[in-house]
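User: ok so my PI wants both of these folded by tonight, can you help

Assistant: No problem, let's get them done. Here's the first:
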Amino acid sequence: MMGSQFNIRRWSSKHVAKWLKEEGFSDYVDLLCNKHRLDGVALLTLTEYDLRCPPLELKVLGDIKRLMVSIRKLQKQHKDVLTEMGYTSDDCPGNVACATNSSQGKDCQCNGVEHFGDSGGSVGDTNSEQFQNGKYNKHQTRRLDPEYWKTILSSIYVFIVFGFTSIVMVIVHERVPDMQTYPPLPDIFLDSVPRIPWAFAMAEVCGVVLCIIWLLLLLLHKHRSILLRRMCSLMGTVFLLRCVTMFVTSLSVPGHHLQCSGKLYGDQWAKFQRALAIWSGFGMTLTGVHTCGDYMFSGHTVVLTMLNFFVTECKH
């Protein structure tokens, strides 16, 4: 074998090419020696991770395993060279591809799995890549930037949209179709079950409870800024869409139990006051706000659905 002829540190790409041919890997001579110029030292420190990942990206699993067996034999024959270069096998039995650095901890590959360590006990911002059960997994561990300026912009956005929604509701309320001319639309389910007077109020109570849970979750979550801006962005966009649908299409009142009719609020100042009352009361009957004409797109359904999703999906 070539390894016994002279020090592997003196191997050039031609020596590595000859070694590959002797081991039965002639197909990879061009890739490893000509294209990537592997010499003796580079060959000795080659790992399975290097073979699988860019820029080499060997595709044949059998060749990868067989080549690693040959490389490990070579590593075993030249343990002294690896030790002089700072590599050790103390933490990885059967594989000497472990580099120890006093300032950066250890990076080990054992049986094709790469492990990351740190002298301080934590990794910080790293991108770890590993092979496990024949699959390539890339784990990105990084700190998420709260980006408070985005949170502030999204909060301003939802604030403006809620105000705009209140103005649109005032306009739509003036256009509510007359119940005598346009009676409630028939509904197979609702017409077949008795009306529950307290159901709507209970829906608002559920919304308030969900809102409290969401605020507590937001307060205790480590990414509260990110969650808040996502909530504001989604809520604002959905309510903006709600404004469009309410303004474009006016539906008849859904039931005879509702005392709804088109109302004229007089001058612009009266309309503004009515919009302010809707906005300050969050459009809820619990706060004394009664509106008509927004049946095309229920705001209560939007809030309940959004809060439920955020509470259940963003708790970790």
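One down. Here's the second:
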Amino acid sequence: MAMDGEGMRPIHVKTPLLRREATWKGPGENGQGLGDVWLKMDAMQPSGSFKLRGVGRCVQMAKLRGAKSVVSSSGGNAGLAAAYAARAMGLPATVILPESTPEFVAEKLRRLGADVWRHGKDWNEADQKARNVVQDRGAAYIHPFHGVDTWEGHASLVEEILDELAIMGEPKPVVFVVAVGGGGLLMGVLRGLQKAGLEGQVQVIAAETTGADCMSQALKAGRPMPLASIDSIAKSLGAPAPSQEIFDAAYRAYQNGWLKSWTCEDKDAVRACLEFADEKKVLVEPACGAALAAVSALNSIIPGTRGPVVVEVCGGSAVDIAMLSSLARELDLQ
């Protein structure tokens, strides 16, 4: 096998692309729908989120390059992807979680065979600990969202979506909606569109929640601006800042007019999660809810949009019925 991983069978699975109910409309539509809205169901990845695409490839490449173990830092989803991929590749995995990570996520990691540590109040502190452990052990460091291997893995979803639409005889999307934390998924989508020859032809919406909006703040400032704190319940979006390389790619698209930044309140994201659970019977985190909520505001983000629109349903395992119900009560949604 080539050292670039060419021909390597991916760990992630191809997930369904579902048409959203035809009766679903955004506000202010005067009874007219947005056109076709397609849901890329990466919540159905074996690890529970899109992270398995990029992190899985990263773990595969680490083994190909000789790694004997892997270390990841994560609030949950990247760690679950790393643990799942490491088990698939026969590698020991250590995952270092912030103290705020729910215990049921830590237990999922243990069931996947990972050695679970807790350190720090947020991802930034957990990540620094992970880097120290990597130096001590000589293990492969698996970043939650940065790195070419990770981005190439995430780019696979664009190819999948285009193939699925072509098979169904459906037109290519005009809008692609993604949730943004550290920006790894966004970077993968940008690279995937470029690879498909669609750069600049598809509008990309980068959705975040207020208080976890490092990309929005960076784009407005023209440079990465680390958040002083993460003040949102969407903890999976809680990176302090995008990396310079991710920011540079996003800022170029933003300046050229085909990347739009959009933020919503926690309440909007949770409401979207509840509506999605009711419609599709699938639970997703509020981080994913930000992308789902963006569709309801699409005509204010990109006036006159009439689809097809693709939403990356990125999923997330740091959620259960009790948590979503509690958030709904806290935000007066029940």
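The CA atoms of residues 27 and 292 lie 14 Å apart. The beta strands are 17-19, 37-41, 70-73, 93-97, 115-118, 140-142, 175-179, 203-209, 259-264, 309-313. Good luck tonight!
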